[in-house]
Every structure is written in structure tokens, then in C-alpha cells.
């Protein structure tokens, strides 16, 4: 009997252990938003209330972070049942599951028309050196010369940040340029287990390169004789060379976890950053569910501009990330610099591609050329994926590979390991004619879809095809430039169609900036090369350009709000070439639309003197949320400190948000063919220049109909700095088939300043 009871006890213990293990395995991270003003009187500090709330549903739940600046609440490891129980408690606004975000992966200042001698834009003294750009990314490589602090004054007295110690990083890693560095890994480690420090540093040190590249793009010091393996040689410098940098490592090998991002934003705002740069994002979702949007709202309330990348999912429509109107959303365009590499075929034809290969060149004689699809035993062998090429069929030959699935540089490595002598990589329809240069591990070049089709036809039709690749180095003055990158994510805004996104585009293709010493320029584990500077592309690169330019404007105009700074950058952006014609979209070869590039390509010199700005306050954004019919709980998730409730007697409208652009969706379901619908937008302009009279012009065109735009009043006179004047603009259009669209501009001009806003019209 005793033995039987012992066996029952053992079985019970094993069952309990299994239940415990199962429960632990089912836990995931949740972010709990609390109503700060509802804290019971028995608690003296909010942290005690948070802990008690967590204990009320579980003694086993792991507490991760407490949020006190840009959000109020905490993050913890919970089961779904515990999360539901917690959400029903008094004072709990919302319990959101963790979201994993992805990173959106020289000549820029010259191309943008700025240099270190522009005292208006780069103040050598005064407030310029007090502006701090916080970069939330993969950390920093502090040994980079781009963090040189020569000539910098002591760290500003109001700075509250720190230099956090960890593997390969301590307080001496910071200086008067890189004034802060922290890392946030609790959410990451809770989901993936402890960090393997043989693979990545549990510290602010950047083992990836992305964070060093973005931070030095935003505000890196000037470094002469910089290049990537001899390409793009010259002086590397960030946008805001006199601004300080603070790094917040929130991204790791497995991604960027929402709980860590929110903790990073919380710390960055509390530390005293003036601009936050986030080259990361996830899929679009309601603002109250988006950790970046929630953190950015509170940052905006405290006067901090948040610049975010639009994403690299273009040219698909409605592919944007980071679309909240209180954030600045940045798409990518090109520079006038390229790295040509020419494919010379045995029949005498020559095709231009791009490459940054710097090793031993190919022989002077032509080599056999083989199509990867004919040198494989795999159904996807044409893509040159690992293990797909037959060495006997590619040895000492140039291999023609199709783009897709695996990384471009990895395809070259696959060819090299199979014994190939070189590679021609061809775009498919998904990438069209867009060319992005790579530091390949073997002689290789990437060509556009049209060239690729011609070369493929030659390889498949000629009985003995041959070719070689010649490398042209660095070429400056490429035209037309800029163009919108095909990979840059596009509108319309899937969350709020009445808000036009992206806001603008900036340099994001083939950008030279600082790099980590942990990995080679390709990022592949097999790449043993080490470089101080790397050239990479993505809206990750365009975002810090705007972050740095925002820091410049903040230094020149300390009293400007985040909305005023964004407005200055948007309304002065250009959308046509000096010779005429609209800026082109690489994806289509036609003129880019506001859904592709927002207001246009950033123009820093004009942004410093915009004449007028469209300003916004936190109260305006709260009214906007009311117009979206957000509940008080949903608003509290975004603005926990406001204790705001929509006024049931007030008529809210999204079209009253004082945004520097116009997106006008017409509902085809509410009209018959020929019916004309009118949509009114209300705007207010603030004078930030000399007194003057501005006159409005507006027009838009759409295939299959006529759009009438009326601005009332069409003339505004400003007599002093800071004066505000309001106007209404009416858009009248007939009912058109769903999917129709039209575009235009509304501009105010006093003869010197042109305050330009893009217009996008859609029928859904």
C-alpha cells in the first residue's frame, strides 16, 4: 500500500512537472498598458502597483520591463489565459502580445547640397552641439573614426544617459561625440534564451554593422580618405556632424522585439534625446497595437522628433511600415553615384551592371558562360542557392544566375564554392531595372531585367557562349538622379487612407558609412574581410539621413516642434528635375507619384528657410484619434498621460489634421456615375519667416474625370513671426471606378518661398 501511494505521489509529481513545463513553454511576452491615474491609494509608486497586478494573475510570470516615460505599464511573460485575466483587472488599459520588428536594410551631403561650411545648417557653436540623436538599432562599433569627438565641447549638462558596460564595452567606449550607449535584451532573451556571447555581444557593441552604419549616417564626424575597398573614396560624414549620438541596442540576431524597443524609446526620451532614428518596422496595424507608434507619441509630446524607415517591401502598393501621423516616414531614393561593371559577350555586345568587387580580376580572355539552370540537378538551380550547382558543369566558367530567394552575395559564394570563375546576376520582373551594388566575393556583376533577358537568350541559344566582366570603379554624375528606389515601400496608407505616407524620400541606395569590425562587408560568415566603412542600401539608410537633417533644424531652430521640423522638410522637398519632368520611379520608369515618394526628395538648404509650416500639437493628434472613433481605452494605450476622453458634442474629422500633405479617398459606393462628391480639408499655416503675402495655386489630374480644387482664402498675409492663418481646400470629383487615382500639388508662394504639398486622390 505504501509502495502504491509512493507510486501515485511520483506520478502526481511528474504530472505536475509536466504541467509546469507545458505552462512555461506556452508563455510569451505581453506588453501591459496601465492607466496611470487609476493607481489605487495603497500604492506609493507605480512599480508596486504593476508588480501587484502581475502577481494577481500569476506567481510564475517573469517581469521584464517597467515603462515610465513614453508608456505606463510593464512587459512580462504570460500565458494567454493570464493575459486575458490581467486585461480584465481595473486600471489595465490593454494587454498587447509582443511583436518582432525587422531592420530595414559620403556622397550624400554633397548630393544634398550641404557641407561643413554651411553655418546656417551646421552651427559651429551654440545649440547645434547640444542636439542629441538617439539611434535604436543594433548598437555601435565605438572604435569607428566616425565617432571622433575632436573639437566637441563637454557633454551637455542636461544629458541623463549613460554608457552601459557589457562584453567588449565600458564607460570609456563613449566620449563627447558618442555620449550614450545602452542595450535592451530582456524581451529577446525571454523568447530565445540567453545570448550566446560567442556569436553576439551582450552589450551596446554592434556585431551586425547596421547600427553603426545608421548612426554614422545620421551624425557621424567627418573622416577623410574613407572608402569601401577603394570604392566611393572621399570624406565620409554624417548629416549632423556637430550633433551628439546616443545608441540604444534593441535589435539582435533574431530581430527587434517590441518590449525591448519600447524600453529603448522610454530610456532615450528620459535621457534627453532630441531626435530618435528607428530604421526598423513591422506590418501595419492599429496605432494602439504598434509599440513604435505608442512610444513615438509620448516622444512627440515631449518635443522629440521620431524618424522611421518606410520599409523595403516596394513596389507593392500599401506596403508601408510606420504610418502613424506623429512619426516621420522616410522612403529611399538614389544618389548620382554608381559602381558600373560591364558584361562583355562573345558576340560583341556589352551590358552595364553594377558591382563593388575588388579582388583579382578575370583573365583578359573570354571565359565560357553557363546558365545556372543548365548546371544543376535542382528545380531552383537557376537561383544559385546553396548546394544546387554541379561543380563539373561550372568549373572555371562564368555562371549566369537569376535573382530571388537567397541573398545576392550568397549566390556569388555558391558559384565560387562550386568552382565558378565569375557570376552575372540578373534581375527578374520583381526587381526590374533597379541595380544595387555588392562587394562580391568573386568577380560578379548585377544587371537589370532587360539586360538579363538578353544575356540569358544568348547563353541558351549560342552553342559556345563566352563572356567576361570588366569593373569600372566609382562613377559620379549619373543621370537621371535621384530616382525612387523600387524596393522602397509605397502608399496608400493601409491604416488611415486620409494620411499620405511616406512623407518624403532621402538617399538610401549605395550609402557609405561606418561599419563594425565583427563581420565583413557582405555580412556572410564566410566573408573574412574587415572594413571600416561599408556601402549598403535600404530605407534603413534613408531614415538616418532625415534624422540627421532634423537634428540640424533643431539646432538652428530650437523652438520648432517635431511637426514644424517635418513640415519644413516636406514642403521644401523637390519632385521634379532641374531640366524638367517628374522624379522617376525605378520600378515603372515613369514619374513617381506621392504614393511612391510623398512630398518628394529632401532639400536641406530650402528646409532651413521654409517660410511657413504646418504645425501640430498633441491635442491635435488626440482629436485625430477621436475622428478614427478610437475608444477612451484605445486612446489611453497611445497617450497614457493624457487621461483624455473624446467630447461627444464635438464633430471630429480626420480631414482637419494639420498635415503638410493631402490624401483624399472618394467612396465609389456612395455615388452614381457622374455624381460629384466634395471633400473639404482644413489647414493652418504658421509663419516662420519674414512678413509677406502668400498666394495659393492648386491642381490635380485623374484619368477619366475632372478634379476641381478650390482654396479659400487663396491669399494669406502674415505680418509677424509666429502668426497663424487658416484656409479650407475643397476637392470635388465625379464618381470613378474603384482603383482610380489622381495626383497634384497645392502650393503657397510669396515670390521667394514655395510651400508645397502633394495631393493624392483615390477611389475605393
Walk me through this protein's architecture.
The chain is α/β, with parallel strands linked by helices. The protein folds into four domains: 2-97, 2-Layer Sandwich (Alpha-Beta Plaits); 102-336 and 482-607, Peptidase S8/S53 domain (Rossmann fold, 3-Layer(aba) Sandwich); 340-473, Glucose Oxidase, domain 1, CATH 3.50.30.30; 658-763, Sandwich (Immunoglobulin-like), CATH 2.60.40.2310. The chain is built from 17 helices and 39 strands. The protein has a seven-stranded parallel sheet, with helices on both faces. It has a seven-stranded mixed sheet with strand order 19-18-24-20-21-22-23, sandwiched between helices. Strand 11 (251-252) and strand 12 (255-257) form a beta hairpin. Helix 7 packs parallel to helix 8.
Tell me the CATH topology of the largest domain.
Answer: Rossmann fold
Helical amount? 10-25%
User: Which stretches are poorly predicted, pLDDT < 50 over at least 5 residues?
Assistant: 1-24, 116-126
Q: How many separate helices? A: 17
- Rg from C-alpha positions? 28 Å
Count of beta strands: 39
Indicate the CATH architecture of the largest domain: 3-Layer(aba) Sandwich
Helical/strand content category: alpha/beta
**How would you describe the shape?**
globular
Biggest sheet strand line-up: 7-10-6-13-15-16-27
What is the averaged pLDDT score?
Answer: 90
Distance between the termini: 76 Å
- Could you tell me the strand content as a percent range? 25-35%
CATH superfamily of the largest domain: Peptidase S8/S53 domain
CATH class of the largest domain: Alpha Beta
